Amino acid sequence: MKTYLRGLLALLAALALLTAACGSDDDGGSSSDTTGGGAETQDLTLGGPADCETNPFCIPGLQRVYDIDLSDGFIPLEAGVVADALDSGDIDIALLFSTSGVIADKGWVVLEDDQNMLAADNVIPVLTTELNDAYPDLAGVADDVSAGLTTENLTEMNKRFDVDAEDADAIATSFLEDNDLLPEEGDVPDGPTITIGAQDFGESAILAEIYGQAFEAAGYPVEFQELGGFRDIEIPAFESGEINFAPEYAASLLEFLNEGAGEATGDIDETVGLLEPYLADIGLVALAPTDAVDTNTFVVTQETADELGITTISDLKDVVG
Amino acid sequence: MSPLLGANGPDSFIWWAWVGDHLDEIWERTVQHVQLTAIALVVGFAISVVLALVALRFRRTYAPITAAAGVMYAIPSLALFAFLVPITGLTLLTAEIGLVSYTLLILIRNIVAGIDGVPTAVREAADGMGYTSWRRFVAVDLRLATPTIVAGLRIAAVTTIGLVTVTALIGQGGYGALINDGLSRSFNTPIVVGATLSIAMAITVDLLLVGFERLVTPWTRAER
Description:
The structure holds two protein chains of two kinds.
Chain A: H1 2-23, E1 46-48, H2 59-66, E2 74-76, H3 82-88, E3 93-97, H4 102-106, E4 109-110, E5 123-128, H5 129-134, H6 138-147, H7 151-162, H8 168-178, E6 194-198, H9 202-217, E7 222-226, H10 231-239, E8 245-249, H11 250-257, H12 268-281, E9 284-286, E10 296-300, H13 302-308, H14 313-320
Parallel strand pairs in A: 1-2, 1-3, 6-7
Antiparallel strand pairs in A: 3-10, 4-10, 5-8, 5-9
Chain B: H1 16-21, H2 23-57, H3 62-74, H4 77-88, H5 92-116, H6 120-128, H7 133-164, H8 175-184, H9 188-216, H10 218-222
Helix pairs in contact in B: 2-5, 2-7, 2-8, 3-5, 4-5, 5-7, 6-7, 7-9, 8-9
């Protein structure tokens, strides 16, 4: 027993040292880059989920549309700590979702997308053709739910998850009940279990629960599968049959499937029209898109915006060179 | 940032009301964690015994067997899961392949070392008493090797319990699911609950194995 206590004490001491060491690591964003063209350029760090490096509306998008290269200063972070990192000054620019409740809460500045890089990222349910064929009435159930989703109520639900620490399933239940969106139990033919994949961020988990609970209420067999990652895990999971339904985002999904060709536009119907053939290629089909739009946004603190004099993404070009 | 004590809410170090509301989930994660650990240890031990017997019988195989187990032990768990997911999916099997492979090196080495450590004189005495080689192995070699084998099991158990949390990345839960949930929204409570219970489970299992060892090796106490 004594050895145990001594061991635990040593562990705690080690933890304390480690914490201290991490705490003094704040000067990580030192400017040592020599490739910048202008004399007064500055290295800015961008923090966001790991898929930012390949996401067509993140680093590759900035490069394509604005000729800004932030890849050297990119710090991959868990989705949940991006806002904290901006708050603590560990990063200069945060990649946050436009439906994130924390932006308004903190009075941060969303850099305006003045050259329209961002496209129609409406929430859109995607499922396998097989599942869609097995349940002729399933699309109707999903459409009713989709019709109730707006950017505003999605933002509100994200705030309940991120700030108030409510559970995704409880948020989904109250959304469906409050908006009278829970369907009556209907006649459901025998068929496959609907396995809904949620990507590794809160909004995806909430949306998965919203559709899943509606399907359950209608009498369908439903399971949830955490993907522990993003689209790069989700699409293979569809292909291997581990999931057959997922809440998606029209423009981002299109640009993922066309490998960043830049086809997505600001028009949702046009974007979905372009998306459909790519989905058909891999045995998927999209249902009606919702009005809820969640794009990536580049966010800085008010102090950074004032200091650097930036309000648009184009302004960023002058700063980083 | 987050006061250890004081107003209790989502920003607290631990928000007791949340813990109270989520006892079901915490219990479910505990059961998952125990299952993931137990399967890994039982399967890992079974495979290790077989490989250790092969290594003992054919000495030339010992180096390659431990080398192979050493390579598996050295693969970062994250990379292993990333590599396995396209093949075996987001399944229990994927999690267990990872967990089991990390127990092998420790267990094989300790089983072989334990049996090698049995004094030749004891073996000869058993032979002299007319023990068949199989009976000698079970009744003498294995018994005398127990402390070393249990020492290996203790390390493997504690390692596995910690490692199970990583399997949450492939949707396999355990306490790692709580930790992931907390990380995904910078919410301390599930992280603290998951980490604390995981540590508590490691200590409990370690103590149980110590107790088991004392129970099956009464002579080691009589010596002192």
